[in-house]
Amino acid sequence: MDDLIDMIAAGDSQSQVSDRIKDLLFAKSAERIDAVRPYAAASLFGEEDSESYEDDEDDEDDEDDEDDEEEN
């Protein structure tokens, strides 16, 4: 992310900055897909463990909320 800011500050071309933003967004979405893939496969093939993703996701949201409260 810092390299993106450096690119903007250095005056790199708009197409280079745009390409970097696309790369960052693609990498972030790929991470999320990789994290969800086992749970999606489990739910498609009827394994009972598929519900644990929803629980894990709720736990992460709760942790984020706690972090936000501590900052305030």
Which features would summarize this protein structure in a list?
about 70 residues; mainly alpha; about 0% strand
Topology:
Blueprint: H1 2-10, H2 14-44, H3 51-71
Can you put this structure into words, describing what you see?
By secondary structure, the protein is mainly α. 85% of the residues lie in helices and 0% in strands. The protein is rod-shaped, with a radius of gyration of 18 Å. The mean pLDDT is 78.
What is the helix content? over 70%
The beta-strand count equals 0
Biggest sheet descriptor: none
Described by its quaternary structure, the protein is single chain
User: Radius of gyration in whole Å, from Cα?
Assistant: 18 Å
- Overall morphology: rod-shaped
Order of helices and strands: HHH
Poorly predicted regions are: none
User: What structural class do you assign from the helix and strand content?
Assistant: mainly alpha
Number of DSSP helical runs: 3
